[in-house]
Amino acid sequence: MNDAWGLYANEYLTSLRAAGRRPLTVRLHAHYLRLLADHTGDPRTITLQVLERALSRPDWAPETRKSARSVFAGFCRWMHGMGYLEADPSRMLRPVRVPPGQARPIPEAVLERALGLADERERLILLLGAHGGLRAGEIATVHTRDLVDDVLYVTGKGGKTRLVPLVDDELVHAIRRARGWLFPGRTDGHLSAGHVSVLMSRLLPDHWTAHTLRHRAGTRAYAGTRDLLAVGAFLGHSKPETTQRYVQLPQDALRAVARAAAA
To answer: How many domains does the chain fold into?
Structure first.
């Protein structure tokens, strides 16, 4: 990123911090702006064509492309509002279509094997993901002050706080003993979300990722309650449509439907 980009990008990122955006969000915006900077030497020359070239990377998944589009649009709106751009070229960007996702809960046998290989810290990380449904960034920032009795106050996307009851005594005792960050590190005193993801990925084989632990939590929670709204609150979703992508329909429900259809 050259000096011209650095000047405007830093001013924009400062505006995000001033608006109370979370550090993880600010870092995500900075990441995508660096990629956009590869397509034009000066942000004051951003055009629709520049944005479309930046978004046309063949290696991006639809969700990644949608996230990048959101960042580019936010930056262009800010540039236009500040008078640095005569018009906002992002207004002409086509929406990014994201195919409906399917839940991919990690199999119990794979999870148990990973727990058996994990050290104490890694075990706590896996349990927070698989049993608590926490995202990597939320796991990284677990702090003793956020635990009240056996309920963990979790600040997730958009700075929204949700309550996650912890039924694992192992987790409750570990958080209390920590007397601060559960996972100390170099990112504001705690581990980074990226490092948490790396630790989990080392223990999980093949295509099973840290996020499939959240899918496992959502699927098991729904199987035990059949309450999609409660599962959504547990996972920190604002829309039930999002929760549906985290829940694999229980086999007994499918069999009941099949029996009813054949009756």
So the answer is: 2
